[in-house]
Amino acid sequence: MDNDERAPLLFIGFGEDHICPPKAKGIPGRPHFPDQGAHDPTQCDRIAVVRRFAALLALSALVVVAAGCGGSTSAEEKWASSICSDLGDWEDQVKENADNVQKELQSPKLGTLAAIDAQVQEAVDASEKVVSDLRALEPPDSEEAAAAQRKLDALVSQIETTVTEVKQTLAAVPKGATTAETAEKLAPLLPSIQSLAVNVSSTLESMQAESEEIKNGFEDADSCDRFE
């Protein structure tokens, strides 16, 4: 039997709903339904509305489920992201200052001492900022996070101590010192700050060892990729 000779009982399309069977009487080769010669248009319209409403509810449920699959950002990830972002910005600034000082020392000229002093002061300011920013962060509410925070506090204290020493050295440089004398005192300051960056990765790694949740938080935070 050809497809066009079959009696469709139900077709549901995107453009039009055909709920009730078409009248089949008198058409050769098709089944005959004596009591369904004609359908009630009003009833069919109601059925179509119900079906469309049910489809809309199903679509809404799928949207809700899909939204839930993305999940929310954990407290550990938010915390880790802030830590890595602050430390990353600090590292970049101190590295830039150290590179600039090195260039000044390689080609001394008029204004070299002032330039070196400005670069050291920028590194000091950046270090004081990262100390303040990291201390302002609130760790997740867990014993493991508290233990990890203590390790971070130890790193922050190292940065703070080094900054204090650098500021004392800056203040001790005699105003009448020669270029060579001043450079000799200022040149080692930035490397002493920059060397702290070596401790950053080991500190973050040690923090992650406190719990699987903290480790996952650091792994999920994009700003922590540079420390892996």
Model description:
With 228 residues, the chain is mainly alpha-helical. It has two domains: 67 residues, no CATH class; 153 residues, Four Helix Bundle (Hemerythrin (Met), subunit A) (Up-down Bundle). The chain has a two-stranded antiparallel sheet. Strand 1 and strand 2 form a beta hairpin. Helix 3 packs antiparallel against helix 4. It is elongated. About 11% of the residues have low confidence.
Order of helices and strands: EEHHHHHHHH
Spatial strand order of the main sheet: 1-2
Low-confidence blocks of residues: 4-19, 61-69
Main β-sheet: number of strands, strand sense, barrel status?
Answer: 2 strands, antiparallel
CATH topology of the largest domain: Four Helix Bundle (Hemerythrin (Met), subunit A)
Assign a percent range to the helix content.
55-70%
Please, how many helices? Answer: 8
Based on helices, strands and strand pairing, what is the structural class? mainly alpha
Give the C-alpha Rg.
36 Å
Distance between the termini: 68 Å
Q: Beta-strand level of the residues, as a percent range?
A: under 5%
Query: How many structural domains does the protein architecture include?
Result: 2
Shape, principal axes of CA atoms: elongated
Q: Tally of extended strands?
A: 2
- The second-level CATH architecture of the largest domain is Up-down Bundle
The CATH class label of the largest domain is: Mainly Alpha
Keywords:
elongated, 8 helices, 228 residues, two-stranded antiparallel sheet, mainly alpha, Four Helix Bundle (Hemerythrin (Met), subunit A), 2 strands, 66% helix, single chain, 2 domains
